[in-house]
Amino acid sequence: MTKRPLFVLTAFAAFAASPVHAEMAPWEKTLYDAALKEKPLTVYTAHYNTDDAAALCAAFEKKYANLKCNFVRTTAQVAYQRLQQDMQANAPVASVFSSTDVSHYPALKGKGLLMRYTPHNAASMVDSLKQYNDKDGDYWVTAAALMLITYNSSQVKEAEAPKNWTDLLDPRWKGKVAIGHPAYSGYVGTWVVLMRKLYGWDYFTRLEKNQPQIGRSVNDTVTMLNSKERVVAAGPEGTTLLSRDKGNPLAVVYPTDGSLLMVSPSAIPKDAPSPNAGKLYMEFLLSKEAAEVQVKSHNISVVKGVAPAPGAKPLESIKVVRPTEEEITKGIPEVKEQFRDTFGV
Fold first, then answer.
1. Torsion of CA 61, 67, 70, 75, to 10 degrees
2. Which is it for the CA torsion 117, 97, 264, 198, positive or negative?
3. What is the CATH number of domain 22-144+262-312?
4. Is there a contact between 43 and 143 (Cβ–Cβ < 8 Å)?
């Protein structure tokens, strides 16, 4: 029998007794040891921009030595389409699916395509967000953020900026508004459902008259504001404030009729190629380490005890609104068609 070199055995013993390994809870160590035998983890995510997704993977790898985290960052609808194509081809890639469109999850759950798992770290979630978890444990809120009114502060004075969502319909913003597209972005799809609920489809009939520039992702609005192609937008709080931190003249308005609270779940596909790594990543997304990465980009911490980034308002001080899961699930397919009919794109 071939003997292993002594240095290999010594290195393994040192690793097994390392402080990080020793600090793991028994359930965590069990998942970790099983994950070490699996393929590298791949995450399909629409929750963050590319830099944030990379930062989360890096933090995961730092916490769990010798585990590799890969990610595919795209819009919610593209991620969902890609996941479905993988499943139909019986060639699974993602072990975690993170979408900003909550309507994806009941559809996957109804077909039995999600792995039921209750994270141990779910107990540390912010209490007000727990209501958005799946009651059966098929998917869990792992990211939260706000969609609100944004503007280029070098082009628009604070006193003149829109104060509520209906202000974007004012003719003075004709040719100056930026929005995303509900057929690509879960954020935008949910926002369109909310506006329809609050003001009827007439809201978009009137908005169309202001000739908005329409991107795909909600984050495209940040690019449009920075380039001065448009000066006001229905945009994301986090990406906008992060761009402001880099020196760009951007600002946000928390609308008097309510900022849209976006809660974005994650789930483990039933055929996940790395199920134990997937479970461990779900635990990680509900950990303090992940929350500290998220708030640096002005996302809202989903776990207790993590302060918001400097300059960001705490969630409890903001008026938020959100459609129900049923309204979103039913409404997004409807508004995609209505949006195309109204805006011609």
1. -70
2. negative
3. 3.40.190.10
4. no
Q: Which residue shows structure tokens 């590298």? A: 40
Q: Are strands 96-98 and 41-45 parallel, antiparallel or unpaired?
A: parallel
CA dihedral angle for residue 185, residue 189, residue 194, residue 196, rounded to 10 degrees: 140
Per-residue pLDDT of the chain (345 residues; tens, 9 = 90+): 434 443 334 344 444 444 455 589 999 999 999 999 999 999 999 988 888 899 999 999 999 999 999 999 998 889 999 999 999 999 999 999 999 889 899 999 999 999 999 999 999 999 989 999 999 999 999 999 999 999 999 999 999 999 999 999 999 999 999 999 999 998 899 999 999 999 999 999 999 999 999 999 999 999 999 999 999 999 999 899 989 999 999 999 999 999 999 999 999 999 999 999 999 999 999 999 999 999 988 888 999 989 888 777 788 788 999 999 899 999 999 999 999 999 999
| List of residues 6+ apart from 335 with CB closer than 8 A | 182, 189, 192, 193, 196
Taking CA atoms, 165 is separated from 19, 49, 160, 182, 234, in Å, by: 52, 25, 14, 17, 8
Which 3 state secondary structure label does DSSP give 83? Answer: helix
- Alpha-carbon gap, residue 111 to 117, rounded angstroms: 16
Counting DSSP H helices and E strands in the chain, the numbers are: 13, 11
Question: pTM for the complete prediction?
Answer: 0.80
Type of residue numbered 47:
H
Q: How far apart are CA 61 and CA 55, in angstroms?
A: 10
Residue with tokens 């600002």, as numbered in its chain: 251
Same fold, 22-144+262-312 and 145-261+318-343: yes
Which DSSP category does 214 fall into?
Answer: E
Q: Domain coordinates of the chain in residue numbers?
A: 22-144+262-312, 145-261+318-343
Q: Choose which CATH entry (3.40.718.10, 3.40.190.10, 3.90.1170.50, 3.40.50.720) describes domain 145-261+318-343.
A: 3.40.190.10
